[in-house]
Amino acid sequence: MTQTPGPWSGGLLISDSMVRLIAMVQTNERSIPGHSKPNAVTATEAESNARLIAAAPDLLQVCEGMLGYLAGLPMSYRPDDAWFKPISEAIAKAKGT
Known about the structure:
Elements: E1 9-10, E2 13-15, E3 21-24, H1 43-72, H2 84-95
Antiparallel strand pairs: 1-2, 2-3
Helix pairs in contact: 1-2
């Protein structure tokens, strides 16, 4: 594993258990009335993005565990291959492979 181990926590600043900065999610929403950007990331969206980033280590661990569990099932109990591909792709995307 090359990424910083979880758990991660935080609001718009995501840190690990040793309080090292992992990520900072910013908003480009303007507070001047009538001058906001049409595609601006709002504070609410930024907070949601930060929660998703903070959950990433847990989600990766769950995906890896699920893939291992499914692969270990007897063939007669395994779901079809359509289950394996998206889980494998998500793991590869998270790991950059």
